[in-house]
Batch of 3 targets.
Target 1
Amino acid sequence: MKNRIYTRNLVLLLLILGPLLVKAQEVDFSYLKKDLPVEVRAELLVSQMTLDEKIGQMTHYANEISRLKVPDYNWWSEALHGVARNGEATIFPQAIGFGATFDPELIEKVADAISTEARAKFTIAQSMGNHSKYAGLTFWSPTVNLFRDPRYGRGQECYGEDPFLMSKIGVAYVNGLQGNDPNMLKAAACAKHFVMHSGPEHNKLKFNVEVSKQDLYETYFPPFKALVTEAKVEGVMTAYNMVFGKPSCTSEFLIKETLRDNWKFDGYVTSDCGAISGAAGNQGYVKSSLEAAELALKAGVNLNCGGTYKQLKTAVEKGMITEELIHKRVVQLFKTRFRLGLFDEDNNHKYTKIGPDQIHSAEHVALAREVAQKSIVLLKNKNNVLPLSPKIKIPYITGPFANSNDVLMGSYYGVSTGLVSIMEGVTGAVSKGSSLNYRTGALPFQINPNPKNWAPNVAAEADVTICVVGTTRYLEGESVDAIASTHSGDKVDLKLPENQIRYIHQLIEKKGDSPLILVIASGGPVSLEGIEEHCDAILQMWYPGEQGGNAVADILFGKISPSARLPITFPKNVAQLPSYDAYSMKGRTYKYMTKEPMFPFGFGLTYSKTEFKNMTLNAEKLKVKDALEVNVEVANTGDFNIDEVVQLYICPEDISGGIPMKSLKAFKRISLAKGTAKMISFSIKPEDLKVYNEEGEKVWRKGKYNVVVGNSSPGELSIKLGAAVPQEMIIQLK
């Protein structure tokens, strides 16, 4: 009896394991050969998978297939301004600060440092069996949505309001993150959120964007196109919202026609998390998540962040899609994994040899400090009150964020043992003999319950008061993280919290004749009506990263001159803005805004004076095949060594037909010692002199154009606030 039971169980076991054993014997492991093209390797591997195994690779958590030596892998990792949500890493300034540097070369160095740390962390994680979310090499960064409206809480993730600046910084970031090895990606970047996703945050799962073809091609497409065609970004993430009546993740116009056919994109497309199911849920575009999965797959989405693609087998069985289409989408995913070297047992490659000493290294910390220095914008400096002397006798630092580390970090951040608050930075910068005093003075987001607040009175005894105010990711940002926001992370107005405004006015009342220095931490524009005129100096520090305190102190006490420029217009108030939920560019950004803002795009002061002179053009008239060559002399006529950001704008005489009033076409950050001058040259390609018409066509539009070179966007306000007088010349397009 026992023998019969044993025999029966053995037969059953063989029936179950037999096919697997046969498959194991038949597996072709030639896909592991590194000398084969990735397309061939991916096809060799995926062709040996069952339908279930293929579908198991199509969500952000990809299953292990042990018989094929395919480990499990989680695609979801973040690296907006440093490796995020994955333990210790260097925290660089928030992305909006990257834009403020106007320095693509520097941002490429930053992204290279980020991917260096990512590789080191990945090697360690793999060795300990950590295959979790955020521990991979496929980073869902950068964000290249346009910061079209300053009320957008997630604007801090963007590089600014200008598509040209966004493109240059974004391409640099992708190049740095992905590396320069022709055979292996250092890490995989992902451009998000394709294509129009700039609020309102509370309704992001439902709203529909309808824009003109002119706005689409002039404003919203360029950064994504640049990342795909120039930087060869490995991934693209679709947005939550609908575009032209279709959920972004189901749009064949966006994914198939634009990305794949027109831009020749050869990477993977992922949905945002839960977006595919949202097409049936919040958006109600289809009746079921099964139909949503069908449409997303057909449109070209390779990867589902979420679980909706687990239903694809049912879709095959019902004849809604074919296994051949699934096969094609999965092959694309494995091309990315092969490009990352995830199936190569090569411990001698320069990327796989990166050691743990590169994580939060002294070199990367120094780089974080440099980027923070170059991202801080000096908005006002009345009577040259700055820089302060380190030997100042009685400095006073105060404000709700003077001793805050949270304000350094922004959203999508890592963690670090090296966070330096503004108070700590100032403490390290002043003389040991200085009587530095510190009091918080005001709570961040609520009125002080106790009215007996001595902090304003301390300003009366100080030689200078440095007040640090602003917001944080708790007040502006992604809805699920902005826990202090009553509007899902967006802003109804641009004012500071009322208690902070009240405290600033208390300081103004008590400080007497001593100067008040306002340091603002925010991810976007802050309205300073009723405040600006009472401040002697104003610094916009954004969310400056772990070295923010040292960087702010470096500027306050003259170790370096401020050099950043505003990557977004600072309006006076929300009354100057169009409706938040309208995506038309009319009245938005420096390119279309007719009202005078508080601070213009491209503006920022230094501790010296710059003079522009001797501008020349290569011709007075240009034909359609002619480039524009511009030369200008830039002189530092002041007493401080500086970095200057030279900016070139094209301003059409005729702005009919909806074209921009002015457009940034080139910029260069240069170092300029006091008393010296440099000749700067720009070459603008004929293609970049064209404009998009109302049909979305790029055309050579004849007429006169003003070529303006300076250190801020053109306009009387820039000069009034302290920018240099620009050089201007007329060019005629024939």
Note: Residues 1-24 have pLDDT under 50 and may be disordered.
Target 2
Amino acid sequence: MRSTLFSAATLSLLLAGCAPTKPDTPSEQANTNSIESTTIYTPGELNEESLLDLISAELYGQNREFAQSQALFYKQAQLSQDPQLAERATRIAQFMRDAELVEQSAILWQSLDPEKALPFQILLNLYFQEAKVDQALEILASHSELTAETYGLIESHRASLTPEELKALFDLLSHLGPEQQQKLPNILLQARIQRTLQQPNKAIELLDQGLAIDSNNADLILDKARIIGIDLDDASQALRVMQPALEEHGDHRELQAFQIRLLLEESPDQVPSLVESAISRSKEDPQLIYYYALLLLDNELLDPAERWIDRLIAMDPDNSDTYLYKGAIEQQRGNTEAALNAYSKVRSGDNLLNAFARTLELINPETSGKELEDRLNTLVKQDPERIEPLTRIAAEWLLDQQRHQEAIDLIDEQLKIIPQANSLIYAKAIAFESIDPVQMLKNLELALSLDEENPSLKNALGYSMLLYSDDFESAFNLIKEAYQATPDDPAVIDSMGWAFYLSQNYDEALTYIEKAFKAFPDPEVAKHYIQVLAKLDRIDEARTLLDTLLQDHPENRHTLEAEQWLNSL
């Protein structure tokens, strides 16, 4: 029996009450993709074997056994050379999030239907996502014509590419045929690549080529204005460049938003009325109101910011997040009670954490630990999932005031609820540092026992052991394990350097600590840098670094320790 191929959707109508026949053995199941067959296949036609496989594939899919379903669709796509079956195999592989199967199926689909753009775009997107940029460029080079959708897809991955990859992509785009060179999406993408490569003038040249084709193209003008206003720091010129496009494209939100951003520096008095106009044109789109309210708040235009925050509250009174910004406005005005009242209305989520942290900035520093705990418990009841970060915020507030035992007591109360909360055990260890280093080490050991492969905890325990124990070998082994897992972490790099410093291998110590300082120049790393420089008789460099540290962090504990240590030499 032979019949023409019909769609998988049609097949599914035939399958009520049927069940797939599974391969008898694992090896048979593994070989489902094999195209070996003694059956004769005519492209575009079904035979008995095809029908059985496709019925089974549909039933596997209905039973959510997607691997078997995909394998059968792929097998029959190979044998019958039918692009619809290759598409089905590709779609199932995408649903499974199996990159290898997506690539395999999409390559087959593309070969069976080379005029169709979709399999090419699926492959291109996959290669960029999997950082297989060479393969992405290879299939791009095989297409003489690229659609606007393809240019958009490439643009969506541009930020993830290295400078070398961007240069290779630019070279490919700039050598496409004359017709492609005249396409505005190509010109725009090339310009954006040049801007990313910090070649603003070359980017402007490309944009001007595009504007010679379409003199008032909003996207080209906006990109040119951004380069002039941001990269070349000429807001006035950028505003002049934008003016014709603003007149022609009055509803272009990105043009309006960038004009307002530039005017915040050049002429802030014009901003409130322009914001009102932009929001009015959008028919009071809440997302746009939210954007402009925060922009106004960030630039300390408090009255217009409050107007739009109040409008958001009126539009959605059940959304408590907005009260965070209401509180920030009142805090900037110095209205402490009004700010605290607004922050108290934030009910959950990340904004609750922010509101709590801001609340602690405003309350009396002598607030008792009991009152602080009551505040914390109220918030935990509102959002139990955030018990750990809320507790850490409260504990850090107490530690900032050197109230270490109160911080420990507060953490202990929450640990009664979640006894294996590693972040709280770690916070408790830090609270113990200045009053009982032995307890600090015990809590770090406990935290690591609950998460044995955590490199940050290994580093924290190892570094603390360097400071507070005599077991140098165990400490250094922990730090080395952390370094092997996270070789780019500045904290771990600094710990490696400090271990070499303590073993008096100052040259090796310098290698690590200098690298850590360049990546993260905080006062503790700077203190280590000063000490190792001094040990290498580079005293002038050490004093210069100390002067900078005293200027930038004059009250920091590590700054003062570095000054005392260097002056004692």
Note: The beta strands are 3-4, 45-46.
Target 3
Amino acid sequence: MSKSNLPSNIDALLLENTRLSKALQAAELCFDQLSEIVFSITEEGYLTFLNPAWEKMTGFLVNDSLHKPITNYLYYDDTKKVSAVLFNSDISQIERQIEFRLVTKDRQIRWVSLTAKINTTENGEIRNITGSLTDITDRVTTQQALTASEERYELVASSFNDGIWDWDLTNDSIYFSPRWKEMLGYARDELPNVFSTWQDLVHPDDLKITLDVIDNFFKSNETFYESIHRLKHKNGSWVWILDRGIAVRDSNNKPLRLFGSHTDMTRLRTTEETLLQRKRELNNVVMVSPDGIVTFTDEDLVSSVNPAFLEITGFKQHELLMITRHQFDQKMLAISHPEQPYHMEMGLGHEEPLLIQITNSEYLPVQKIDACNVGLNFQHKISEYRTLRLTKYCLNNTITPTIMYFRDVTLETELNRIKSEFLSVAAHELRMPIASMYGYCELLLNREFDPLMKRDILQTIYGQCSSVVEMINDLLDLARIEMGSDKFFHFSLQPFIPIVKETLSSLKMHSDFHKIEVHYFIDKSSLIYAETDQIKRALVNVLSNAFKYSPSNRKVILEIKQRVNDKGVEEIGVTVEDKGIGMSPQQVARLFERFWRADNVRDIVGSGLGMALVKEIVDFHQGEIDVESVLGEGTKIGLWFPLRLTNEDKIKKLG
């Protein structure tokens, strides 16, 4: 280099030195103004460099802190954690991060975030560590406060056994509390905090309805949201949830946030369903009960009436509901029988049942009786009055404090009357032949008679014995039919005409058999479901009466026919018509009463049980009896039984 160039080079060096010096001063100024602590420590942990931010954060002077261990300034509980991260050469990462606490000069705790770079030798040993410390006390304090708040909220919420959720609609994020998940059998970390978690757990039958409720809520101006739906438990069962929330909306009513709680109402729902089921069962029992039931409110208003009561009394429901007790009493009194009326005033408690009689709402007048001719079907005769047993219950509650219970005892009352009457008549009818036999036996024991007279007396006793045996057999047969025991009867499907022919064949030895004129108007293969012996017995009784009560020179006409009754049922029947003494309408009405016999036939032998037995036999076969009679001209009796079709007949009928 020439000497002439030397001054210029020196000047350039001086200028560069000046520039670098200013740049360094500027860098040092910026470095000194950093809010983060910049540090350097040796491999043993001694501080070798600190910027002024150290003094601002900790209160310790930089010069007083240099060449001292950094652990002197760490919170005691964090010392091991920091040493394990910074001075562990087994960790491969060059850059390391950790959050810990520093203790300031005035004994305050400051949270810092450390970011450090590990400088190592060629052998991998730590040479020194450089890095920065950022004050994060405010963030940690805020986070701790938030966590504490959430914990307090969870504690309060858990005391109510509710789960908490928080749905931020601005970023579509959602939070489910641990209790929310626990209610469904899941641990805190088993369910992600996303909307699809809830959506996937909703019962398929409830999902669309629930989503519609949410959508309609968002579109409305409402603040409070509520929905009931089922969520799937981890064990596979379904949990009924009452979901309630509050919406936060902006000035345009757009929802920004929705937060609320989940309440497990499975037990309540189950109890409610059980109660509803119980209520339905009780309602069904009341609805199908054959007895009338009327309930009253605590204000003595009619609160309910069941169908049986309406059927018994003939009232309409709208006529009775919410009327007063006095009005109800007046209505009942209006339909009561004067001799056995409804009592308006009944005492409190469970009184003895009260028997009343009311007009029969289903009473159908018996077919109009002509003075000279009567035609009756004994399937449709109904009593004009019903007998009811009324019991009043006063319960200790405010829902139905009073219940009236009406039991229709018409049949029971009538059966008791018939039973008493039957026993009285039976005793009378049996007493007459027994008294006669007793008297004749007494004569034979106390007096001597010639053989011819003695034979006449014994013949009379034998005849009376035969009457008693016949009467007892008829009574036994009636009892067996009423009992309906299968061991006495053997039903089978069989042609009707052969049964009639067998019956007529058994009567060939009868002295009046020649008077029968028979006509067949049905197919020989027509079937009935019957007990053969009982059908024969009924037909013999009808024919015997025709013979007994018609002159010897008059024909008895027997016809076998087929018809469709007023209910649309096809029937096969046998009619027996005589030209005898006939009956009046009053006599026809009593024809089937046991032991009843008309006054004008007392001199003709009979027990008064024959036609009663016929009626029981026909009823037992689900048949019907028709009676047509004109006093002084004759009687026609028809026995009708349901027609049974063979499979071939059914196919032909369908074709």
Note: DSSP finds 19 helices and 23 strands in the chain.
